[in-house]
Amino acid sequence: MNTSEIKEIKGLLSSPKKIVIIPHKNPDGDAIGSTLALYHYLTGLGHDATVITPNDYPRFLKWIPGENTVLKYDADTELAVTKIREADIIFTLDFNHFSRTGNMESLLENTDTTYIMIDHHQQPDDYATYTYSDVGMSSTCQMIYHFIEKLDDLDKVTADIATCIYVGIMTDTGSFRFRSTTSTTHSVIADLIDRGANNTAIHENIYDNNSYSRLQLQGVALKNLKIIPEYKTAYITLSQKELDDHNFKKGDTEAFVNMGLSVEGIVFALIFIENKGENIIKISLRSKGDFSVNEFSRNHFEGGGHHNAAGGKSNLSLTETIEKFISILPSYKNALNP
């Protein structure tokens, strides 16, 4: 996003506007953190801003400042449609293709307004009037910080905004351990703490608020963990029955895939989760070093994401999906054993 575009956006935001802010379907910490941070910033400027998520999100994100204002498209469809159709500006955050919004895709494609995309995923689409894309950035939340900085408004970052941004950076960097965490990221985090983000409380709200049933499900996932040493690969499976038996709630399997990646010598980890409601197998992929799970997922499981963190899906059964995955691995032996 160049200087002239920033100047134009400052002009757009110089008078009150009706603004909608949209994250991707099944929003995570970065999606909710970035949308709510932007919401607080824009309302502070006097705009009529609304966050509209395609669907609900995990319980561990429902303490974030401003969360009670969020509209869920699948539950508040009529009001959400009205807000979108009346919007002067629509910000799309943490995704770069309308297909990532699920049932909102057609509505967004047919809404004629000013779109502003802020996102750090690869291969962005060209639907936006203004695009701020940086695949090297740790998170969309860090990009929101820099977006506000570009607008010369860091003095307007309140404790609520700092908290929202901190959440997304922390969760999308795996608590600051992924390779996308740079010295600049740490500088941003330091400034957020100075501006009121309570890092200890944020960490506790996200990671230390487990239900008993989620911990039991984590035990099942560990029991199902399989290692394929010749490919430095680990994978976990969870069937729909196993989810149902442990009172599964949205977000309960968050970060389970990292358990496989934590095993000594493993550079490629996956979790395959059966979803009978959508009739798919949801896949999360993680890696260390130079192995690209983004490329792997795009090539084989209709997905994508980042170099070391991606998602995908399969329309096969859980057993057939695992068989397909194992049959693919030999062609990646050299990449996994450099």
Could you characterize what this model shows?
This protein has 14 helices and twelve strands. It has 338 residues and is α/β, with parallel strands linked by helices. It folds into two domains: 3-207, inorganic pyrophosphatase (n-terminal core) (Alpha-Beta Complex), CATH 3.90.1640; 212-336, Diaminopimelate Epimerase, Chain A, domain 1 (Roll). The strands form two sheets. It has a six-stranded parallel sheet, with helices on both faces. Strands 7-8-9-10-12-11 form a six-stranded mixed sheet. Strand 7 (226-228) and strand 8 (233-238) form a beta hairpin. It is globular. The mean pLDDT is 96.
| Total strand segments | 12
CATH-defined architecture of the largest domain: Alpha-Beta Complex
Largest sheet: 6 strands, parallel
**Helix/strand structural class:** alpha/beta
Number of helical runs?
Answer: 14
Quick check: average pLDDT? 96
Radius of gyration: 20 Å
Give the termini distance in whole angstroms. Answer: 37 Å
Shape: globular
CATH superfamily of the largest domain: inorganic pyrophosphatase (n-terminal core)
Strands side by side in the biggest sheet = 3-2-1-4-5-6
N-to-C SSE string, H for helix and E for strand: HEHEEHEHEEHHHHHEEHHEEHEEHH
